[in-house]
């Protein structure tokens, strides 16, 4: 004779499958109560304490609901930008000026200016919608003189 209640999956001897309503195991299962009892049992066993993020606030829980949050999160995580070419190249030129003093040699500066000018020209020829591209190619002599004025001098 099988002493297993009728509402348990066949072959299940696991006591976790016992219905939450212990008084009437042959009646319909109260799924909400069953789920809640299993969650409480797992909490008592400490199964949730080793999860990543345990005890930490949920990031963005207080932010305003944004239906495209997952797109923004993906772009942030992958460090991608969705800017029109004119704005993207303007931002890249700003970053170029900030990184200029880290270049060690005049040849490295020349190479970086050539690369930046190629990107600027490519943005000029882009047919993507957006604001007009007003970023002009960099003049190598101007960049070199600025680099010579702003770079850290080797100490003697």
Helix content: 40-55%
Query: Would you list the SSEs in sequence order as H and E?
Result: HHHHH
Mean pLDDT: 82
Count of alpha and pi helical runs: 5
Low-pLDDT ranges: none
The strand count comes to: 0
**Outline:** elongated
Structural class: mainly alpha
Largest sheet data:
none
Gyration radius from CA atoms, angstroms: 32 Å
- Strand % is under 5%
State the distance separating the first and last CA atoms: 95 Å
Characterization of the model:
- The chain is mostly helical.
- Among the domains are: 31 residues, no CATH class; 66 residues.
- Helices cover 44% and strands 0% of the residues.
- The chain is built from five helices and no strands.
- Helix 3 runs antiparallel to helix 4.
- The radius of gyration is 32 Å and the shape is elongated.
- The mean pLDDT is 82.
């Amino acid at each position: 004779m099988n002493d297993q209640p009728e509402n348990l999956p066949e072959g299940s001897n696991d006591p976790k499958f016992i219905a939450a309503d212990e008084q009437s195991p042959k009646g319909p299962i109260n799924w909400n109560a069953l789920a809640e009892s299993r969650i409480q049992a797992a909490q008592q066993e400490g199964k949730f304490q080793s999860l990543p993020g345990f005890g930490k606030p949920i990031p963005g829980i207080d932010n305003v609901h944004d239906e495209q949050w997952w797109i923004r999160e993906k772009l942030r995580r992958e460090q991608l930008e969705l800017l029109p070419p004119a704005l993207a190249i303007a931002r890249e030129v700003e970053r170029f000026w900030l990184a200029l003093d880290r270049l060690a040699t005049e040849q490295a500066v020349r190479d970086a200016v050539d690369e930046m000018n190629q990107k600027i020209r490519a943005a000029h020829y882009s047919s993507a919608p957006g604001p007009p591209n007003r970023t002009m190619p960099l003049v190598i002599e101007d960049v070199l003189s600025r680099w010579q004025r702003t770079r850290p001098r080797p100490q003697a």
